[in-house]
Amino acid sequence: MTAPERPSRPHAVLFACGMNAVRSPMAAGLLQQMFGTSVYVGSAGVQKGELDPFAVAAMEEIGIDISRHKPITFEELDELEGFNFDLIVTLSPPAHHKALELTRNAATDVEYWPTVDPTAAEGNREQRLNAYREVRDQLMARIRERFTQSRASNE
């Protein structure tokens, strides 16, 4: 019996969510930190929001600066640099539907990682920030699981 085939590590990854203001920039920052320039990493949203300061704060805690991230839509990304990604990881249902629509005739894999939107968290600053930390840590665990398993087989 052979072992199940592990997915290969893609060369270009796009993370996508609803507004490109919290989850997808966090995920992109995490993957970029992990692989540096060996993997091209982008992020986009179905719509364009404003970068969330809680997302910036949660990432700063682990030494990743996303403060210069400029939210962008799928359409703006396509106009700026084309849609040349091996893998699109969607973090929200609207982003997943949009990615499937855009890649219908493309050789691009799409994976759906349902991820809670921490902007809905209520409470004081620390309670709200904890919701962002939880999302960050879940994304980090998922990224490690997905990309380090295939890393060994590609090196």
Tell me what you see in this structure:
The chain has 155 residues and is of the alpha/beta class. 45% of the residues lie in helices and 13% in strands. The protein is built from five helices and four strands, in the order βαβααβαβα. Strand 3 (87-90), helix 4 and strand 4 (109-112) form a beta-alpha-beta unit. The model is unreliable at 1-6 and 150-155 (pLDDT under 50).
List the helices and strands and how they pair.
Blueprint: E1 12-17, H1 23-35, E2 40-45, H2 53-60, H3 74-81, E3 87-90, H4 93-102, E4 109-112, H5 125-154
Parallel strand pairs: 1-2, 1-3, 3-4
Defining key terms:
alpha/beta, four-stranded parallel β-sheet, single chain, disordered C terminus, 5 helices
End-to-end C-alpha gap? 24 Å
Structural class designation: alpha/beta
Q: Beta fraction of the residues? A: 5-15%
Considering DSSP H and I runs of 4 or more, what fraction of the residues is helical? 40-55%
Quaternary organisation: single chain
Order of helices and strands: EHEHHEHEH
Total count of strands: 4
Strand order of the largest sheet: 2-1-3-4
* Count of DSSP H/I helices: 5
Q: List the uncertain runs.
A: 1-6, 150-155
Backbone CA Rg = 15 Å
Shape: globular
- Report the average pLDDT across residues: 90
The profile of the biggest β sheet is:
4 strands, parallel
Short précis:
This protein has 155 residues and is of the alpha/beta class. The protein has helices at 23-35, 53-60, 74-81, 93-102, 125-154; strands at residues 12-17, 40-45, 87-90, 109-112. Helix 1 (23-35) links the parallel strand 1 and strand 2 (40-45).
